[in-house]
Amino acid sequence: MLRLISALLFLGISFNSFALDIQADNLYPRVEFETSLGKIVVELDRTRAPITVDNFLTYVVKGEYDNTIFHRVISDFVVQGGGLNPKFEELPAGKPIANESGNGLTNSIGTIAMARENEPHSATRQFYFNVADNTKLDPSKRRWGYAVFGDVIEGRLILEAMAIVETGTNRKLNWPDVPVTPIILKTAKLLPKK
Q1: Most buried residue among 21, 131, 147, 192 by CB atoms closer than 10 A?
Q2: CB within 8 A of 12, min separation 6: which ones?
Q3: Which pLDDT tens digit goes with each residue over 174-193?
Q4: CA triplet 56, 66, 186: central angle to 5 degrees?
Q5: pLDDT (tens digit, 9 = 90+) per residue, 32-42?
């Protein structure tokens, strides 16, 4: 056994590579966000957005959302995070995923969805919470939408508090709508199966 462990370590393979458990058999996994304003729990929908859920949970289980910030807050629109650390440095992202916005889930208040660039299949690690009914983010016959993949099931008041924090333009990034007092995502953890 010791030889096997030594060989694996020599090859750069760790036990974490084998232990990555994103609950692939759980259709509705739940994730708890511990933020600087309180806890939010989301229930994800793998039946409607399997690629998106698996991608998101990979970041969660690897701890890659821990100690990040919600860098974009627009009241009556979205609270976005997952891509920057508290020093406003962009974090590494994996490969972009296929856009699952045509899955029947809508960008309604209290849902979680993937942020992306203009190219429809460009979502990687950033996500947002809808703090309004954002039908303009849903797909139509002529355009791609933004893929919703779950709902907030606990902590709606925390999300509402996030949505009304004071924001301004961040000098380092030259971005508007950045919270003046950072909202930290301390941890995001996959909860045990029900």
Answers
A1: 147
A2: none
A3: 999 999 999 999 999 999 99
A4: 125
A5: 999 999 999 99
Is 86 or 20 the better-scoring residue by pLDDT?
86
Who's near 100: CB < 8 A, 6+ residues apart? 48, 49, 50, 51, 52, 147, 149
E strands within 3-54? 30-35, 38-44
What is the pTM for the complete model shown?
0.89
pLDDT of 169 strictly over 50: yes
Question: What does the block give as tokens for 193?
Answer: 């199966």
| Rounded alpha-carbon distances, angstroms, from residue 53 to 77, 91, 95, 105, 179 | 22, 20, 14, 13, 27
> Sorting pLDDT into bands at 50, 70 and 90, what band is 50?
very high
One-letter-per-residue 3-state SS of 150-164 = EEEEECHHHHHHHHC
DSSP state of 160: H
Torsion of CA 5, 10, 15, 18, to 10 degrees: -110
Q: Tokens for 22?
A: 């994103």
